[in-house]
């Protein structure tokens, strides 16, 4: 089978949001235990309400590997990691990153192991 020279990009951006839920006292922690799920629900609702679904993919992902840092999401193709704590933080990520193409700098998290 012959592959196209350039694979089509389905979305302009794709968000992966960690939705792993471990028990509250689990030693690894988890984004779910840190309050991620209501934030991701808000994010999905706002993407839909704003009509961004054709250009912004949104996928609830498994563990992204930085469990005590969460709630974490990562936006590609930039590979920018965010740690929102409130629905207002989610709204700022949408406005700044997705609509104005500027970082919501105070919500960016630089990860290290
Ligand atoms: S549980 Fe979210 S990064 Fe591991």
From TrEMBL:
<dbReference type="InterPro" id="IPR036249">
    <property type="entry name" value="Thioredoxin-like_sf"/>
</dbReference>
<protein>
    <submittedName>
        <fullName>(2Fe-2S) ferredoxin domain-containing protein</fullName>
    </submittedName>
</protein>
């Amino acid at each position: 089978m012959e592959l196209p020279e350039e694979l089509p990009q389905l979305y302009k951006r794709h968000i992966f949001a960690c939705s792993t839920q471990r028990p509250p006292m689990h030693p690894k922690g988890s984004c779910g235990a840190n309050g991620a799920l209501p934030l991701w629900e808000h994010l999905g609702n706002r993407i839909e309400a704003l009509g961004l679904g054709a250009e912004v993919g949104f996928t609830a992902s498994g563990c992204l590997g930085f469990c005590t840092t969460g709630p974490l999401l990562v936006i590609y193709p930039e590979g920018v990691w965010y740690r929102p704590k409130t629905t207002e933080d989610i709204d700022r990520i949408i406005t700044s990153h997705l609509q104005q193409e500027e970082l919501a700098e105070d919500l960016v998290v630089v990860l290290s192991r």
